[in-house]
Amino acid sequence: MHTKKTATLTTLAALLAAGLAGAGPAAAADGGMLPHPGPDGLVWVDEFRGDGGVASGGASKDLPTVLTVACDGGGDVRVTMDSKGTIVAAFNVECPASGSAGVAAASMAAGVVRPGDFTIVVDASTRTTRWSLTVTQPE
Questions:
Q1: Which of 3, 10, 43, 74 has the greatest number of C-beta atoms within 10 Å?
Q2: How far apart are CA 93 and CA 102, in angstroms?
């Protein structure tokens, strides 16, 4: 689907820009924390450290939206999702220092995320906090 390819390219551009701003991606010793979201996925960030986020397009107003964030490495992350100038999700995820990752999600009914673009900001409490995220619109 063309919109999903556009969303992926937009996400990659946003991650590259964040990396150039000093918050570069880290190599995973044990892989990402969230699996690839499959055909329902709009965004997948396999792994990132510190502050970051994504901008994407291709959202449908006719489908529900699920934002899932996982993290580890200590501290916490504050996650905010904006759709067309309106905050549609905001939550914190506690990030265990070791062991399994902390996970939280926001599920939004169809129409909450408006058609087209959206942004997600992840504010990590430390530069070493590792996180992963997915945005899906299950059909």
A1: 43
A2: 6
Smallest CA-to-CA distance from 52 within 88, 11, 84, 91 is with 11
- Total H helices, total E strands in the chain: 1, 8
Spatial distance between the Cα atoms of 40 and 48, rounded to a whole number of angstroms: 22
C-alpha to C-alpha distance for 100 and 117, rounded to whole angstroms: 32
* Cα–Cα distance for residue pair 105/67, rounded to 1 Å: 5
Nearest to 131 by CA among 105, 84, 93: 93
Structure tokens belonging to residue 131: 């996180």
pTM for this predicted structure: 0.78
CA distance 26 to 29: 9
